[in-house]
Amino acid sequence: MGCCREDGAGVKPVEKLRFAVVGDPVLHSMSPAIHNAGFAAYDVDAIFEHLPTATDEFETVVAMLRNGELAGVSVTMPHKEHAFSAVDEMDEFARRSHAVNTIMVVEGRLVGYNTDVAGVRQACAQAGVSETAPVLILGAGGAAAAAVIAMDGRSLFVSARKATAAHTLADRTAADALVVAWGDGIAGAVVINATPVGMAGEELPDNVLAVGSGLLDMAYGQGETPACAMYRDRGLPCADGLDMLIAQAVSAFERFTGITPDPNIFRTAISRSTRDSD
C-alpha cells in the first residue's frame, strides 16, 4: 500500500516517501520509531527520520517540502509558530492556536494541522482525569495553546513565567481563561504541563502539584518526570509525554497516510526502542 500524497505539478515524485520530525533538540524524539512501526504494519512505502533544525533553519525544511524531498513533517519546539507562518492553508485548530505541528504536502501545497488538540483530549481521557475539574495549563507556547483549545469550556487557568505571554495566549486562542502567577496552584485542578520543565529531571512548582487532582505532563525525556512520579505515588491520574505523543501521533499518521492506526502499534514501538537503548 502506498501513501496518499498527491504530487503537485512540477514536483518530482519520490520512490520512497520521506517524512521527518523537525526541532531543536529533536534526537530524543520517539516519532521516527512510532511512525516507522506504523509504516511497516500497514505496508506503507515510506521512512520517517530525525531532522535536527536550528531556529534559523526552518526555511530549509520548507524548501525540502516544496521541492518534494519531504512528503510531510512533524514539528516540535521551537518551530510550531514558524510552521504556522510557512503553510499555505491550515485546519481550524492550527488557525486558532497559531501553531502547526504537522505539515503535509497536498497537490503541491503545504497544509498545516494541529494534532496536539486531539492528543490532549485523548491522553486526558485515557488517564481518567476529571472531566469537570478546573484545568491549570502551564506554559504559553504552541503546546499550551493546543491545551487551551482542547480544554476550552472548562474552568480554565493559564500560568507562565512571563505573565504577559500567558495573557497573549488567552487572547489569541479566544479562550475564557484566567491568568494566574507562575507557581500558584488551583485547588482540585487538572494540571497540564505544556513546558519543557521535567525533560531533564527538573521539578514543577510544589504549590501547583500539591493541590492538583490529575496531571498531563507533556514533557518527556529519559525516564519518568518528577511530576508524574509524584502523582502516580499518590494514586492520582496521570498521563505522561509518551501518552500525549502516541495520542497526537495517531492523528498525524492519519494525515500522512489516510490510515487510522492501532495505538498499540505505537506503544509497542516505544517500548522496544526504549529497551534497545538501555
CATH superfamily of the largest domain: Leucine Dehydrogenase, chain A, domain 1
The count of β-strands is: 12
What is the helix content? 25-40%
Distance between the termini: 34 Å
**Would you state the CATH class of the largest domain?**
Alpha Beta
Oligomeric status of the shown chains? single chain
Main sheet: strand order: 2-1-3-5-6-4
The succession of helices and strands, N to C, reads EHEHEHEHEEHEHEHEEHEHEHH
- Computed CA radius of gyration, to the nearest angstrom: 18 Å
Average pLDDT rating: 91
- Count of alpha/pi helices: 11
CATH topology of the largest domain: Rossmann fold
- Low-confidence segments, given as residue ranges, are 1-14
Amount of beta strand: 15-25%
Large-scale geometry: globular
Number of domains: 2
- Structural class from helices and strands? alpha/beta
Major sheet: size, sense and barrel closure? 6 strands, mixed
CATH architecture of the largest domain: 3-Layer(aba) Sandwich
